[in-house]
Amino acid sequence: xxxxxxxAAMPQELQxxxxxxxxxxxxxxxxxxFWVGHWEGRELVVVLSGIGKVAAATTAxxxxxxxxxxxxxxxxxxxxxxxxxxxxxxVVATELLQHxxxxxxxFPRFEIPGQGLSRLPTHTALSNAVAAAATQALATxxxxxxxxxxxxxxxxxxxxxxxxLIVSGDRFVSSASESTALRQALPDALAVEMEGAALAQVCxxxxxxxxxxxxxxxRADDTAHVDFGRFIDEVARHVALDIVRGTLRHGS
Length: 252
Ligand code: SAH
Fold this sequence. Notes:
The protein has a 5-stranded mixed barrel, surrounded by 4 helices. Helix content is 36%, strand content 27%. The termini are close together. It is globular. The protein has 7 helices and 10 strands. By secondary structure, the protein is α/β, with parallel strands linked by helices. The site of S-adenosyl-L-homocysteine has 18 residues, from strand 5, strand 9 and strand 10.
């Protein structure tokens, strides 16, 4: 089955995964600490991706060249863009795009120069396994915490799993004007974050299967920063743990 790599965006998410792994050892390469071990009978390497596209691309490249990862799964949080994508929901990417890539007029806006592509697809079987694990996570334990723990932020309805376009850029999107502009330019974007499309480009170059899953921490508007840390502690790290466990148990 090879070695599955897990990239976590936040230290709290990384620590929660490490606490669950029985036997990890630390290996340091070019900055980040990589944790190599097993969980649920599978060989794993777990790492903090760092924030932003360059950090994610460097980390993904090291996972593939130094740690022989055969698949990569990114777990983290994101801002919701889709009209029905609410705080506490989970979005599993079917494709990723860099929303701040713009070499126009030389290339169409969003296109990666030289690649002839703007949207990079994720691995379907791995993404579907992750979506099934996310559905399970929200139906049992970790999802329910969203409504109890964060009354001020959570919506009244149960958390949902969405699959579709996630966009990435080197900006924390925290104003209504910015998220409205993104929605206008990319009407089918479900969520915005800062790393996924970089991982996608590296995996695309190496021909390695990958998936990206994000718990929605905010609506990428003027309140995006409110309770961000608390959301990770109380909700996102538990959902991430359940999703990784479910993906390992039920196939990937
Ligand atoms: N204040 C945070 C900063 C984290 S940056 C800190 O203390 O570390 C936000 C992280 O969450 C990034 O990894 C990004 O991928 C994701 N994210 C969540 N909401 C986002 C938004 N509205 N815009 C962009 N990225 C977002």
